[in-house]
Amino acid sequence: MGRGGRIILRFDDNYLIDGPGNDLVVYEDSILQGSGGIPEHATVSISTDGVGYTGLGVADGTTAFDIGSSALNGNAYRYVKIEDDGDFSGELGVEYQGFDINAVRCLHTKRMDFTKPVRVEAGADVVVVKVPGTGAGANDPRNVLGLPGGPSWSLGTSGSITLKFVDNVIVNRDGPDFIVYEGALRPGDSGVAESAYVSVSQDGSIFQYLGVAYGTTAFDIAPSGLATVRYVKIDDDGGGGDDNPSGGHAGYDLDAVCATHGRSAIRADFSRDGVVDFNDLTIFAAAYDSRSGQPRYNPEVDMNDDGVVDFRDIGPFSGRYGTIVEDYSRTDINGDGCVTNSDLTILNAALGSTTIDEAWNAAADLNDDSVVDSADQQILTSQLGTCPGQ
């Protein structure tokens, strides 16, 4: 690691949890040629979200840790940070300085479940941008919309796709907030997982990088600093068609992007049926006068996110009563909560295009007839100025 060096590791398919005895082992490979086998030291800390870390102590060579005294409220941890202590005294002037990390092993884990059912509205709704790379799939990229399990779309080497959640948004809660599914097991593929870079955005213009999807991978949006996400961008890592050496479609084979923590684009549509009505009032009433940590507490009903469902949430809820999601969701192309001339500008840039044209933008095809034309303009202009999503 070098003197004072640091490394942060993330578990993508399991969590570190507290169990009987030691829970985590940090291995040091101190028997490097010329090192004399002298153990070196590094501080070790863990995190649920990659932002706030809890210290475990000092690794003195290979060291096991019990996280019980540090784990809070039964938290499950995904990140481990190792920081060399900067002390040069035990290294005898060897070429490689600092703690020689070999591996980090979880002794007690909880596996992430990628197979459990996901709510129908949790899948991405629109392909906003697609940039096919070399060897990309010839099928329709819109196959990746909705839930996993259908035909995937190969991005091609260095290809890219940006997806938008229209009638729902991904929200930041404890643990993974969305899953990027890779469909590598298509006919002709060997099933070898591929890699892609994943970024997220609230407005579709400024993206925050989250990390690498290696095969099917879950992501926590907390490191992005965003409370909600409507856009997910997937960029193939440029490694080529490793999954099919015989020469099939190259690049990451995207199957779907699904929210595991989400809510309706209209905050008060708790039932996610597209309208704020009596069903939502019933859900609101069931959680009223509850606070975080209590069985009745529902974070979606806590309209002002203060950890309590009380009279302060009545105003924001009643102000949205009767709102219909479909009134604005498709026409709010840039996802800023209002239908404005900015959305019309985006639509006009794609005017006259079809799915095979360079200017094609699926988000501007408001009636889903595979062409952006005057009919789409009419739909959007009829809703200019509406902001029921705010």
Q: How many structural domains can be distinguished in the coordinates?
A: 3
Strand share of the residues?
Answer: 25-35%
Can you name the CATH architecture of the largest domain?
Sandwich
State mean pLDDT (0 to 100 scale): 79
Strand order of the largest sheet: 10-12-19-15-16
- The ordered string of helix (H) and strand (E) elements is EEEEEEEEEEEEEEEEEEEEEHEEHHH
**Number of helical stretches of at least 4 residues:** 4
Distance between the termini: 48 Å
The CATH class of the largest domain turns out to be: Mainly Beta
Per CATH, what is the topology of the largest domain? Jelly Rolls
SS-based class: mainly beta
Q: Give the beta-strand count.
A: 23
SSE layout:
Blueprint: E1 6-10, E2 14-16, E3 24-28, E4 41-47, E5 54-60, E6 63-65, E7 79-84, E8 101-106, E9 109-111, E10 126-131, E11 153-154, E12 160-164, E13 168-171, E14 178-182, E15 195-201, E16 208-214, E17 217-219, E18 228-229, E19 231-236, E20 253-259, E21 262-264, H1 278-287, E22 290-291, E23 308-309, H2 314-318, H3 341-349, H4 374-381
Antiparallel strand pairs: 1-7, 2-9, 3-6, 3-8, 4-5, 4-7, 10-12, 11-20, 12-19, 13-18, 13-21, 14-17, 14-20, 15-16, 15-19, 22-23
Helix pairs in contact: 3-4
